[in-house]
Structure formats: C-alpha cells, structure tokens
C-alpha cells in the first residue's frame, strides 16, 4: 500500500477551487483567481507545507485546462463527467441539501423524493467517490485532509475506507438542519449522510447552533450507533458504538471572521474611490442609505428586505426622498430555474417600488446585479444602515465586513437566523426575517440612531467581526485536527 501513497501532507477538498479558467476567442485559457478563507489559510501555512487543493472542474474552461494539462502547483482539478457533476451539484447539493439545511421547502408540494432523486443521489455518490479516490491517491502517510461543505458529506467515510491512516476533518459552511427537518430525508439517505460525515476524525461548524443541530441528528436518528458526550470545554465527541473506525469523532466550532487588514487596504484603492463618487451621484445629495450586498441565493431574503423597505416608506413617509435602498444582488446558481426565478423576482419588486414611489429626483431602490467587488466595498464604506436579513445563513460575512470598512459608522440590521448573530447580535438591531412590519420598524430605528451610538456600536461590531481572521481560522482547524 505504502508505495501508492502520494506526497502531500495537507490536503483541502472543495467543489469550487481557488482558480477558474475561461477559453478566450483565440483558444487560449484565461485563469481567474478567487479569494476567501481557504485561500488565506493555505497561503498562511506557506509553500513548504506542500499542500494540495483538490477541487472539481466546473465549466468548459476548467475541463479544457485539465485536458491540456494546464494548472497551478498545489491545485488538482477533477474532470468529473459533466452530467454526474451537474446531478450532484445542481440536483442534490443545491436543490436538496441546501434546501434542507436552510429550511427552504414549500412543504405542501415539496420535497418529492422520487426515482429521479435516487438517480441524482447515485451521481452525488459517484462525485464524492471521485474526490475520495483522488485524495487517497495524493495524500502522504498520516496526512491531514480538510474536506469542505455539503457537497462532500460522503467523502470522510469513503476516504477512511480507502486510507485509514489519514486524519480527516470536515467543515460545514452552512447551517445544519434541526432534527425534525432533517428527518424529511429518506431514512437510508440521512443515515448515509451521517455515516459519511462521521467517517471524519473531526467535524467543525461556524457556530454552536449548527454543531448542536448536527449532534442532535446523530443522537436521535441513530442512537444505537452514535452517542454524544462532552469532550472538552471547546468540543463534543460522538462515540461510535458499533466498533467501526474511527472510535470517535470530535465536533468543534470555528467562527470565520473578516480579514480586516485586506479589507481596509483594498477599500481605499483608487477603483473603490471612483465607485464611491459614482454611487453618491446615483443616490443623490444628502440622502441616507440602506445597503445590502448578496448573491441571489434563496436564503438571503432579498425580496422581503425590499418589502420591508416599502413598508418603511408607507409607515414613515418622512423618509421618502431622504433614503435610498442600495441593493447589490449578484446572480448565483443560474443553472437552476428556481434561482433564476428568484433573481427575476428581486428585479420585479425593485422596479415596482421605483415606479410606485419614485419621483423625478429620487430613485428609491438602486439595484445592481453585475458582480463588482470594488463597488461592493464602496457601498460598505458609505452605508448608513446595512441590511442583512437572511432566512438562515451559516455565518454571513457581509455582516462582518461592513463594520470593518465603514467610513462613519453603520447600523447593522441583522437577522437572528444568521450565524453571525451569535457574535454580533448584541450590537446589531435584530430582526425576525419573516416579519416585514418588524423589519420596517428596525430600519427606522437604525436610520434614526444618533451618530455617537452608531459609531460606538460599529467599533464593537468591527472588533467582534475580526476576532478570528481567515488565516487563523484555517490554522486553528488544522491544529485541532492534528492535536
Ligand atoms: O456560503 C456558503 C457556501 O457553502 C460556501 O462555503 C461555498 O463557497 C458556497 O456556499 C457555494 O456556492 P457556489 O454554489 O456558488 O459554489
């Protein structure tokens, strides 16, 4: 066996990797690099660690790069059959697991776990197996493997069967469903998910709320197999009662924070200053702003945010002409009809508010849908109020980033269902994301807050938001797995 082992001591696995390729008109490949916690974490451990990031080829450009052997050191892209990938990613990960963990089903008619679902589940298995096999091939004896997210729930169990010598961790970037909601999944599927995850030596979540939900699922759904016990002050343990390896899985929490150093520097570059000037012009002289920046994911609650803004204009007409809702809604997962419909609904509601309330000199909702990071930072800097009202969210980094870069202090209106609420709730104005009237009231309270209190709260929010910067977040997980 030893001769077939790879050379990497640290491996990360995620569906989306740190780089994507696009084929240009002249046939060449253009590489685009991404950011985020994992990128910072891997750069923090340095090139000597000889780490490898295993990810899926997502589009035609990525697939072409794999075929041509174009790539970056430290990244291995898996060219999984496009239909298998689509069924696993769109069909299961984004249409079933995302819906379960964010509680998004309209239950009178869905979910429907039919033969088509079973066919897609087979693809999800095959896609997870492809990752497990690649990791098994690349990992050195005793290496540490950090598997990411709901796309790859089966990898820990599959990988352990192939390589019992490895230390396997899994990190969930989403919430975990409460046990009664998780029970909706067919019995064999939910058992397979739990067994897959619990093949890991260590599982980690963004908050204790999600970690506890997972532990409840393990304890209530398979009590003959799993028993939850406290392991230390900072972790719980799931004992495996059936004698299968590992003997136990530790469960801990790492609340990913904002990268203050990067954000503060980046938000003062020339392109951001230019966007500030342009945005000020769109907003109009002397007006307040309610800013939101999201991908158009169904869990972000952008439409109810706009309905609450409309309610504010009805309940408090004194704000008309004096405030603008700046909403950046960047299209996400547009292969799926329900995400496309949601994106269209966001546009429709914004147009409706503008045609009902707008005046020649005032556009009540300024909506932008083209992803522009510099413009997002510009909006963060000038926001008077940041609206972060998700139905449910693993963490929500926008809630953490705005206070860090805000020029003059910003009031955070925050859903109590966002993971970030655990750390920021005290200094935010909290909302029930379903309550339109309550959210309108919160927006009024936020707009009316005195500058002194607003500045104080922003300072405390920024401190809490940056408590665990991305590089440290990653290193903490790695060290906890190696301990
Ligand atoms: O935001 C939660 C999350 O699970 C991230 O960890 C992950 O990067 C993203 O969602 C997946 O989104 P996409 O489908 O665009 O890759």
- The shape is globular
Summarize the biggest pleated sheet.
Answer: 9 strands, mixed
Task: Give the structural class.
Answer: alpha/beta
Low-confidence stretches: none
Beta percentage is 15-25%
Considering DSSP H and I runs of 4 or more, what fraction of the residues is helical?
40-55%
Mean pLDDT: 95
The CATH superfamily of the largest domain turns out to be Glycogen Phosphorylase B
Bound molecules: 6-O-phosphono-beta-D-fructofuranose
Count of helical regions: 18
Total beta strand runs:
17
Structure description:
This protein has 483 residues and is an alpha/beta fold. The protein is built from 18 helices and 17 strands. It has a 9-stranded mixed sheet, sandwiched between helices. It has a 6-stranded parallel sheet with strand order 14-13-12-15-16-17, sandwiched between helices. Helix 10 packs across helix 13. The two termini are 25 Å apart. Bound molecules: 6-O-phosphono-beta-D-fructofuranose. 6-O-phosphono-beta-D-fructofuranose binds next to loops.
Which helices and strands occur, and which strands form pairs?
Layout lengths: L7 E6 L5 E5 L5 E5 L3 H9 L5 E6 L3 H9 L6 E4 L3 H21 L12 H24 E10 L6 H8 L4 E5 L7 H4 L4 H11 L4 E4 L2 H14 L4 E7 L2 E6 L7 E6 L6 H7 L3 H14 L4 E8 L6 H14 L7 E8 L6 H21 L7 E4 L4 H10 L2 E4 L8 H9 L5 E5 L5 H4 L4 E3 L4 H13 L2 H15 L4 H13 L1
Parallel strand pairs: 1-4, 1-6, 4-5, 6-7, 7-8, 8-11, 12-13, 12-15, 13-14, 15-16, 16-17
Antiparallel strand pairs: 2-3, 9-10, 10-11
Helix pairs in contact: 1-18, 3-4, 4-5, 10-13, 11-12, 11-16, 14-17
6-O-phosphono-beta-D-fructofuranose binds next to loops.
């Amino acid at each position: 066996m030893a001769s077939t082992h790879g050379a990497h001591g640290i491996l990360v696995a995620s569906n989306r990797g740190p780089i994507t390729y696009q084929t240009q008109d002249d046939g060449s490949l253009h590489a685009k690099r991404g950011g985020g916690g994992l990128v910072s974490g891997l750069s923090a451990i340095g090139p000597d660690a000889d780490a490898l990031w295993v990810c899926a080829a997502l589009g035609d450009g990525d697939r072409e790069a794999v075929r041509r052997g174009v790539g970056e050191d430290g990244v291995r892209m898996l060219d999984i059959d496009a239909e298998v990938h689509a069924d696993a990613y769109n069909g299961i990960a984004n249409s079933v697991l995302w819906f379960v963990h964010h509680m998004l089903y309209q239950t009178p008619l869905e979910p429907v776990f039919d033969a088509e679902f079973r066919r897609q589940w087979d693809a999800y298995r095959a896609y997870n197996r492809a990752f497990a096999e690649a990791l098994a091939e690349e990992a050195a004896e005793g290496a540490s493997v950090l598997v990411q997210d709901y796309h790859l729930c089966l990898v820990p169990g599959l990988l352990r069967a192939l390589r019992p010598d490895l230390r396997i961790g899994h990190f969930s970037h989403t919430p975990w469903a409460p046990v009664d909601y998780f029970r909706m999944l067919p019995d064999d599927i939910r058992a397979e998910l739990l067994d897959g995850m619990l093949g890991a030596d260590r599982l980690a979540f963004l908050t204790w709320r999600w970690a506890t939900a997972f532990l409840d699922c393990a304890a209530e759904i398979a009590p003959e197999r799993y028993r939850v016990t406290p392991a230390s002050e900072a972790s719980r343990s799931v004992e495996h009662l059936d004698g299968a390896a590992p003997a136990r899985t530790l469960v801990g929490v790492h609340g990913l924070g904002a990268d203050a150093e990067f954000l503060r520097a980046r938000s003062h570059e020339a392109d951001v200053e230019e966007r500030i000037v342009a945005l000020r012009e769109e907003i109009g002289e002397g007006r307040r702003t309610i800013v939101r920046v999201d991908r158009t994911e169904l869990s972000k609650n952008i439409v109810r945010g706009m309905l609450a803004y409309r309610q504010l204009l009805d309940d408090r007409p004194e704000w008309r002409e004096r405030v603008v809702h700046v909403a950046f809604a960047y299209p996400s997962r547009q292969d799926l009809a329900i995400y496309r419909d949601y994106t269209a609904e966001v546009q429709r509601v914004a147009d409706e508010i503008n045609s009902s309330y707008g005046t020649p000199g005032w556009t009540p909702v300024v909506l932008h849908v083209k992803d522009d990071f510099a413009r997002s930072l510009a909006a963060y800097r000038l926001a008077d109020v940041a609206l972060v009202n998700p139905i449910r969210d693993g963490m929500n980094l926008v809630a953490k980033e705005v206070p860090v870069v805000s020029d003059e202090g910003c009031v955070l209106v925050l859903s109590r269902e966002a993971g970030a609420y655990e750390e920021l709730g005290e200094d935010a104005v909290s909302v029930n994301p379903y309550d339109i009237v309550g959210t309108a009231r919160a927006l009024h309270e936020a707009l009316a807050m005195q500058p002194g209190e607003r500045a104080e709260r922003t300072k405390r929010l920024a401190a809490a938001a940056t408590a665990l910067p991305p590089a440290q977040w990653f290193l903490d997980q790695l060290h906890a797995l190696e301990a």
